[in-house]
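Case study 2.
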Amino acid sequence: STLITVSESGVATGIPDPSEARIHMHPNPFQQRLTIDVQWPVPAHAQVVVFDLQGRTVATLWDGPAQTGRQQLIWEPGPGVVRGQVYLIQWRQQNRSGQVKVLYRSE
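Prediction:
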């Protein structure tokens, strides 16, 4: 599993802080389903988007208002998503943003 804490400056740290966004993804690598647990520090518009390594949008998992607290998102890649590839999960809320690599395993 992957736990990323992102400070207001956008720097990823491993140290939990209630004023920072916390993102936990599991399992990584994954085969059919990726669970993304997000802890938003403030109520504000947020985005969670999946990109391939060429920068193309693969899926938008969240794009709208987010409340302070925990949210769980699920990514189940569709038929056009290539197995055995690395994808980037990118999140943004106000001036906070970050990304993490995930591997969509081949069967």
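Residues 1-13 have pLDDT under 50 and may be disordered.
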